[in-house]
Amino acid sequence: MSTTLTVEGMSCGGCEQTVVEALESVSGVTHAEADRETNSATVEGDADVDALVQAVVDSGYDASA
Predict the structure, then answer these.
(1) Name one Pfam family in it (predicted).
(2) C-alpha span between 32 and 64 (Å, rounded)
(3) Does pTM top 0.85 for this prediction?
(4) Residues 6+ apart with CB under 8 A from 19
């Protein structure tokens, strides 16, 4: 399953990496990518969407599904 989140606040590659690491720490995630140009993150796996959003928020960015 693929899930796309809107992520606000990423301004550099380091931001993208922080978001990816936060998403990949969520149980059920098999792969994650973040793109500051499109303000989005794409997640592969069967993780709970609310857990994904919370992981991004906890890492310092605004996120929504």
Answers:
(1) HMA
(2) 15
(3) yes
(4) 7, 10, 32, 34, 41, 56, 59, 61
